[in-house]
Design goal:
The structure is a single chain. The chain is α/β, with parallel strands linked by helices. It is built from 19 helices and 18 strands. A hairpin with a 2-residue loop joins strand 5 and strand 6. The longest helix has 27 residues.
């Protein structure tokens, strides 16, 4: 009996030592030590608070930025990861210590806490933002202190910090309930009635949106392309609303490259709207972002200290005139959803309200779908996406989890084939060539001979296109010409290149929903 009471008293003492009342008692006892000068008393205060915080949680700092701005503390009692310089942490600490944050002693304690976060007694980490993944597991934040963990065994709500996954308080999704799952892409009119021009468009969009929590290092940018009124920006905003993310929809400007990297470094999802004019830096930046690249720059103009911004966000781009896709290297990395003008109309407020109502069941459905995909050990077809094979492989497993494997495979194949066509359509030279080849005849000859035939079909080319420019542009776009026009080239007499081009087949031209008997596509 005495042992039981002793154990209970020890447990109560241990609990007391990590509560605000415990540290307040310890600070009061220090203040009562006789003949202690102010400097020594302050040092003891600082040491006591740092030790108390070690007992209550753990100190961290950002791996890529080991400075005081990146100092962090994880409060195990509240399951919160906070920046030590954040107002929320300073206010909590001042309240816990029963001090005014403007008092000199508190300022000294705050300085000691910051210093502790950069010592060998702290850990360098890269915090998760909104979602995270590890081999065999995917994590979706659920308010400041909770996480939905998806594994092959199921979906469970766990504490922030489980498995070493730490979400900062400012980088979590608003709280949601794990409840009966319902497919939000069928339930919500914004997604269900999306005006996809090709039959695979809705499935491709769904696979991309459901993949967000899986957080691979290389993330294919999604392009929603269509005319005014097609809803290309609204469907992207709907994904923000479904997950509960603050919509980050920014314009593309000629001097906005730094803003682009700040946005993609923040994690989650970033949308760049109306990318319709030619911006020199955009193709290279998008290409780098799709493969987890980064940009290095000075922190301040006044010094040489460097900062690295990584591509952590999924990127969506909307455009009515996607001239950036003329870059041969970039178009190979994109997922393109072509949209037609949306018929009918629904009030913005009604669309948003419908998604808000469906959020709990929708996120639960996404979690269950990812769980089933993680449990799927069956082989998947290869070659579905040359640039992002991991994304494509898991997308097929997501399709299986939905009971629509064939549609998922077909969507990935169609998207891969559409990349080359998307590139050619958005390059002025190759677009003219494509228009000419759609006449239905096989061409065989030199670039000069090809140019003459193109001019005969379109006299406006006479003033600004030369045989040399045509040849150089064809070489730059050659992989896409080979894919769409079954192009071949060989060196003829005198070293001149001779080309053989075939008209684009029906499979290279995206079928519209109106031309397909199964017009409903994924949701028919």
């Amino acid at each position: 009996m005495n042992k039981t009471l002793a154990a209970m008293e020890a447990a109560a003492t241990a609990t007391m030592s990590t509560t605000p009342e415990g540290i307040q008692k310890e600070l009061w006892e220090i203040s009562q030590i006789p003949k202690l000068d102010a400097a020594e008393r302050h040092r003891k205060f600082c040491a006591a608070v740092v030790n108390w915080l070690h007992g209550r949680g753990a100190f961290y700092h950002l791996k890529d930025s080991p400075d005081f701005e990146g100092a962090l503390f994880f409060d195990r009692a509240r399951k919160l990861l906070l920046r030590i310089r954040a107002d929320s942490f300073v206010a909590w600490l001042a309240d816990a210590l029963a001090m005014n944050k403007a008092e000199r002693v508190f300022l000294l304690i705050q300085s000691a806490v910051e210093t502790e976060s950069l010592t060998e007694r702290a850990t360098a980490i890269e915090p998760a933002t909104y979602w995270a993944s590890r081999p065999g597991a995917v994590y979706l934040s659920n308010g400041p202190g909770r996480i939905a963990r998806m594994t092959a065994d199921g979906v469970a709500l766990v504490d922030n910090g489980t498995d070493g996954i730490l979400f900062p308080a400012e980088a979590v999704l608003p709280s949601w309930e794990l409840t009966a799952p319902a497919n939000p892409f069928e339930r919500c009119g914004l997604f269900r009635d999306m005006s996809a021009a090709a039959t695979h468009g809705k499935m491709l969009f769904t696979l991309w949106a459901v993949s967000l929590p899986t957080n691979p290092r290389c993330k294919p940018p999604l392009v929603t392309a269509g005319p005014v009124g097609s809803g290309k920006t609204r469907v992207a905003t709907g994904v923000f609303e479904l997950y509960g993310l603050l919509p980050r929809v920014a314009a593309i400007t000629k001097t906005g490259e730094k803003d682009f990297w700040v946005a993609v470094n923040a994690g989650g999802m970033a949308c760049f709207d109306n990318a319709d004019t030619r911006i020199d830096w955009l193709p290279d930046a998008l290409a780098a972002a799709s493969t987890g690249g980064c940009i290095e720059q000075r922190k301040l103009y006044s010094d040489a200290e460097r900062a690295v911004l990584w591509a952590r966000s999924w990127v969506a781009v909307t455009s009515a005139n996607p001239s950036f896709a003329a870059d041969a290297g970039l178009s190979d990395r994109l997922l393109v959803v072509r949209l037609s003008r949306r018929e009918g109309g629904t009030a913005e407020a009604a669309l948003a309200a419908e998604i808000a109502v469906a959020r709990n069941s929708g996120l639960s459905w996404i979690c269950q779908t990812i769980h089933k995909a993680l449990a799927d050990a069956e082989a998947v077809p290869e070659g579905l996406n040359q640039r992002h094979p991991d994304f494509a492989a898991f997308a097929v497993r997501l399709g299986r989890a939905m009971g629509r494997e064939a549609e998922a495979v077909a969507a990935m194949k169609a998207a891969e084939a559409d990349k080359s066509l998307f590139n050619l359509e958005n390059d002025s030279v190759s677009a003219a060539l494509l228009d000419f080849m759609r006449g239905g005849e096989v061409f065989a000859g030199t670039s000069a001979e090809l140019l003459e035939k193109m001019k005969a079909a379109d006299p406006s080319l006479d003033s600004h296109l030369s045989a040399k420019r045509l040849s150089k542009r064809m070489q730059k776009l050659w992989p896409h010409l080979a894919a769409v026009l079954n192009a071949r080239q060989e060196v003829g007499h005198g070293g001149a290149l001779h080309y053989t081009l075939h008209p684009p087949g029906p499979s290279e031209v995206p079928a519209t929903a109106e031309d397909d008997e199964d017009a409903g596509g994924l949701f028919g």
